[in-house]
Design brief:
By secondary structure, the chain is an alpha+beta fold. It is built from 13 helices and 29 strands. Strands 5-4-8-2-1-11-14-13 form an 8-stranded mixed beta sheet, with no helix packed on it. A 5-stranded mixed beta sheet has the order 16-17-18-20-19. A hairpin with a 3-residue loop joins strand 6 and strand 7.
């Protein structure tokens, strides 16, 4: 999911690095927040600095009680195998429906006496098993179902939960008709990430469990219904129409989607495609679909090759809805798009939606096929999706477009993710959560920290590619997909696969880029010494370095372009400086002064770069 709306390749990556879950209207606040990390002295930035420091300190533990405040995945007392959700919506202009959720599961580890489900603000009617009432309690947040005797191991069980939902405060967004917007049909859409689908169906609302789902939804005739998976029933009786959507490959609860409304539908899949690719847009916008979404099929081909895995679902829908608070959400097989994500010819003079479309499509592999096991590891979803956009630019416009996108991401992320200098004499301290961290009040916080899972995650994947080479990088990605598809994964799972495939020890790499905040602030000076006939390099890490934040360890590639006898520029000489401490020096002998020097030309280090060299080298 992303909350930024993207434009050109370079700007797209830069905006995404800064604005992972904000709207454009919020961009000023977030840029101020991260401005303080790079030395901004405005009052707003200083206030935000205190907030982030408090977040790091106060969420680690409670000084009064000693309690550990870190977040760990909840227990899975049961393995949920399927959900069949039957919903009846009598009136699309009245935000209420009745429902029956049938959950099938079996105990894990020991016989099951209590089953706890997330279920927020339901009008609960009954809980039954095989038609008989089950004892239960409900506090408007958690539904606890009791089994006496406990359910035995290795024995599937099913319960039916009957309830009503009335104008839910989150998770399901209802837009009735309104005279202020004439001719706009009523509509609803859901938004489950991170933990808000609990407002419209009972579930284990955390990403460490997967199940199949069926949505059986009856609505007033004339409305269309989208769910996950494939449509198995579209049946009209009188003034009521019933739709049945079946997602028979397991996914996580936050990816369950329901959309009801009136749309133009255009399939952008080429003739003979094994995958339907419908795009749903507001009535009258159908003629604009092909121009906006016409590259979807080619993107699928690019990603199938890059990830060494066929597109995994029964269809790929993209649905433009009213009042969507982000830009896109990668619900399984059915991405939700923001309300104006359909462009006319005038808009195309300035931009296109390919970056957003590629990001959400990439999620169908990373986020949906493989899902982070907890929000601590959300970069495994968002970093890969952001990197998918860069891969699309490479396929569509060439390697220069790829590097333009990566340049925006890496440089923008490195500027955002700097630790402020400590006052003189201050002790080294833990200050704020890293990208992979159990420290947060609410799951949303894991998406929008300065050590950002979008920009930093994308940067990490690019660094791995640059350091390992294309062959080993893509082989490792393919092995990761093979091992964890239809499963959940943690950061160490990705590292272990990369280590097995490449033979490289990557623990330090992942430790410094994933599990600590900050990035490199690189200062490189290059001079020519005529008497010694050598280029002299001075390399300094200028970010904060202390006991909590030692110097980063990385290899810094530098290309030196000699001059030929006729004054033309020769092919570059590449040297690689192993940087293991704050300062390094190197001298390179040449016959004559070089034409220019390029430091880290492929951006293999997540760093800001200040380069001091003779003006003629620039």
């Amino acid at each position: 999911m992303t909350g930024s709306r993207r434009f050109t390749p370079a700007l797209a990556a830069l905006v995404l690095a800064f604005l992972p879950l904000s709207s454009l209207a919020e961009s000023g606040d977030l840029i101020e927040r991260w401005g303080r990390e790079t030395g901004c002295e405005c009052r707003a930035c200083k206030t935000e600095a205190a907030d982030w420091i408090d977040l790091g300190r106060n969420l680690r533990w409670n000084p009064g009680t000693g309690a550990d405040h870190r977040n760990y995945p909840p227990d899975r007392a049961a393995d949920f195998q399927s959900m069949e959700l039957t919903i009846d919506i009598p009136d699309m202009n009245a935000p209420t429906f009745t429902a029956v959720a049938r959950l099938t599961f079996q105990p894990i580890g020991e016989p099951l006496a209590l089953l706890r489900l997330n279920a927020e603000q339901f009008d609960l009617k009954s809980v039954t098993r095989d038609g008989s009432a089950l004892p239960h309690s409900y506090d408007d947040r958690i539904l606890t179902v009791r089994f006496d005797p406990p359910l035995p191991l290795n024995t599937p069980a099913a319960i039916d939960i009957t309830y009503a939902v009335n104008d839910p405060p989150d998770g399901l967004i209802w837009t009735p008709e309104h005279p202020a917007w004439p001719n706009r049909p009523a509509q609803l859409h859901t938004q489950g990430e991170p933990e808000t689908n609990r407002f419209w169906f009972p579930c284990h609302d955390f990403p460490n469990d997967r199940l199949t789902t069926t949505l059986d939804v009856t609505v007033p005739t004339g409305y269309m219904v989208s769910g996950n998976g494939r449509l198995e029933l579209n049946q009209t009786t009188g003034n009521r129409t019933r739709f049945r959507w079946v997602q028979d490959k397991p996914h996580v609860n936050y990816l369950v989607s329901l959309i009801v409304g009136k749309f133009d539908e255009v399939d952008v899949a080429p003739a003979g495609s094994r995958i339907p690719m419908p795009v749903w847009v507001p009535p009258g916008k159908g003629p604009l679909v092909q121009r906006t979404y016409g590259n979807t099929a080619r993107m699928v081909e690019v990603f199938e090759k890059a990830f060494d895995e066929p597109y995994p679902w029964d269809r790929y829908a993209q649905i433009v809805v009213h009042n969507f608070h982000a830009s896109g959400m990668e619900n399984t097989a059915a991405t939700t798009m923001f309300d104006t994500a359909i462009y006319d010819d005038k808009a195309f003079l300035d931009t296109d939606l390919d970056s957003l479309i590629a990001h959400e499509l990439g999620h169908q592999w990373f986020g949906d096929l493989i899902t982070c096991n907890s929000w601590e590891h959300i970069w495994l979803n968002e970093g890969f999706a952001t990197y998918s956009s860069a891969l699309w630019w490479e396929a569509r416009d060439g390697k220069d477009a790829y590097f333009a996108s990566i340049f925006g991401t890496i440089r923008g992320q490195a500027r955002a993710d700097q630790l402020a200098p400590l006052p003189d004499g201050a002790e080294p301290r833990f200050e704020r959560p890293a990208m992979c961290s159990k420290l947060y009040n609410y799951p949303f916080e894991t998406f929008r920290k300065p050590s950002n899972p979008y920009g930093k995650g994308c940067s990490i994947l690019h660094m791995l590619r640059m350091n390992l080479g294309d062959e080993l990088f893509y082989k490792s990605v393919g092995a990761y997909v093979d091992r964890y598809k239809f499963k959940t994964a943690r950061t160490e799972d990705l590292r272990n696969v990369f280590e097995e495939v490449t033979g490289k020890s990557l623990e330090q790499f992942f430790e410094q880029w994933c599990y600590r905040p900050g990035s490199v602030k690189l200062d490189v000076k290059a001079t020519w010494n005529e008497e010694a006939r050598e280029v002299r390099l001075s390399i300094d890490q200028k970010q904060r370095i202390d006991a909590e934040n030692p110097a980063y360890v990385f290899d810094l590639p530098i290309d030196i372009f000699p001059k030929n006898d006729d004054g033309t520029t020769a092919a570059p000489i590449r040297i690689v400086v192993p940087c293991t401490q704050g300062h390094h020096e190197r001298a390179i002998a040449l016959d004559r002064e070089p034409a220019f020097v390029a430091v880290d030309p492929e951006m293999s280090v997540l760093a800001t770069l200040d380069l001091g060299c003779p003006a003629q080298w620039l």
